[in-house]
Design a protein that fits this description.
The protein has about 425 residues and is of the alpha+beta class. It is about 25% helix and about 25% strand. Bound molecules: FE2/S2 (inorganic) cluster and fe (ii) ion.
Amino acid sequence: MMTSPEQGPALNIRPGWALPSAAYHDPAIYRKELTDIFHSGWLFAATSAQLANPGDTLTWTVGSESVVLARTTSGAVAAMHNTCRHRGCRITPDGTAQGRALVCPYHNWAYRLDGSFAGAPHMGDALTAELRSELGLVPVPVSEFAGLIFVCFSQSPPPIERAHDAITAHVGRYRAQATQITSVHHYEVDANWKVLVENNRECYHCSPNHPEFCLSNYELGMPGDSRTNQRYQEVVTRQRHRWSEQGLPVDDVSFPDGDFFRVARLPLKDGYLTESMSGQLVGPLLGDLASPDVGSIRIVTLPNSWIHVNADYVMATRLTPIDENTTHVDVTFQVRDGARAGIDYEIGDVEAVWVATSEQDWALCEKTHAGIRSAGYRPGPLSPVTEGSVVDFHIWWAHRLGIDAVGQSATTIGNEAVS
Ligand code: FES
Ligand SMILES: [Fe+2]
């Protein structure tokens, strides 16, 4: 690896191999990721169920940017920069709240739920009608579909129509917007965000680590994983036929042309109607589904979400990068709107598989991140059989950072020479 005192450590990226340590630990690379990935493209911010009622707000901070989402009285979601138009104070802390207005804590300037300016105390005659109309919070591009809310901190967001169409086609019948939150689990994971994404993009580790997940899920048939067998192929063919008969889309749409999303319907093992411990449903069927025989929908959006939509519940995982060594994770569970806890569902049953699986993953990610920091770390070869999607993620990441020919060309990240 080349090192230069002026340029800092070089990144020696080898296609098909794990990334070098600096990719996970160098603050300059992390800053570049915030700018070129997290502040440029679409991010999964929340589920619609987290903003179910007018007046519900949700605030989310990613690096230097922070967005306030609000369900307005019209039913739409408004998204605004969480920066007061007086002297810039953050208006609301991260998390959810309910109210009729957004009030800055510093000098109590107030904004309506759509972000427009509502009033400010003790401003004398400084605020003309014209000025008041200009003092609304700066909008953030937002898109809500299929029960999911995406934001983009860039004022010129990339197209999202293809993700909208593919995900809506798969999830529309589930009416994920008509679900209710059963619980949200918040984690602080001592690992770089890419360690979590890499972990999500392969099931190489599933069999040794995820007994609960493997009850209902095949470890075969994952994208970028060529393991299969005749019995699995027969299951896929049979189930796809049944899904088609119900008018459900069966074809995977997986990061088309390097786009940021994937949606796929996967079969569950015989005897499993959902991702539960028992195989039985853990809540009422969602939306307009007439049968639980619908497999399990997987949505992945890079850089920060994976969402499972089962016949009876939704599990949504949102990553928030905090620094190069820390990632916050929110895992949200949802069941059909109106379902009664203790009668129609038990929270523990809804959560069982994905709380266990998530916490197993965070432990693996923390161990991996710690190992990558060691002087003894050397990137190893990725499996051409099971880790094709990790390679694809590396290509996506490198492309976003302007590294066009990974392992071949030299470019610059911040002050870092990348070769
Ligand atoms: S900075 Fe918000 S009211 Fe003064
Ligand atoms: Fe895992």
